[in-house]
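Methods, example record. To illustrate the input and output format used throughout this study, we show the complete record for ISNCY family transposase. The sequence lines were provided to the predictor; the line carrying structure tokens was produced by it.
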Amino acid sequence: ETVRRIMIDAGFWIPRKLRPPKVHQPRNRRACLGELVQIDGSDHRWFEDRAPACTLLVYVDDATGRLMQLLFVPSESTPAYFTATRAYIERHGKPMTFYSDKAGIFRVNARDNAEGRGYTQFGRALFELNIDILCANSSPAKGRVERMNGTLQDRLVKELRLRGISAMAAANAFAPRFMVDFNARFAKVPRSDFDAHRPLRGDEDLARIFCWREWRKVSQS
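The corresponding predicted structure is encoded as:
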């Protein structure tokens, strides 16, 4: 503590609370639809005081800002992302890359796994589908989906209130119609007309891929 105080007085150390906020340079959008899709879960009182808080899984295309998938779930979990991602692929095809945070759903964060080897259940499913996943180092790095969360917490909450929707099932049924209207008004035109989504191969069974798997050893005794 004495050394730290001397460094502060000499101007070599700035306490964290006095440091200026980091300014993150905005990243250029990707060129193609489906080239990079940002994903996140937004915990919020989506139904205000009409129902308990829940989580909205949000998938946003980086090139266009289009809402690609919305799913209301009780909380962020691997099964929830399995369901949402399977629905995404069935509707749009396979994107090139998903961009997420470093939550344990997406990345093995164990200390004894410092080299980053191994996959989570979600990561393993994407590997089998030849879909890359990138994990952002900070929330501003995936700013498009973070800003979308804030927008939805305003616009979507009001739409749900106007329609008297107070349950996740009804909200999920309404979500496709909301996305169509939202994208028609706010989505950007991509720099390239090429759609980077890929169709499923004949041997890619989503029901088999999006399931929980664990290795077990069978004893001979």
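Annotations derived from this record:
The chain has one domain: 37-204.
The first strand starts at residue 37 and ends at 44.
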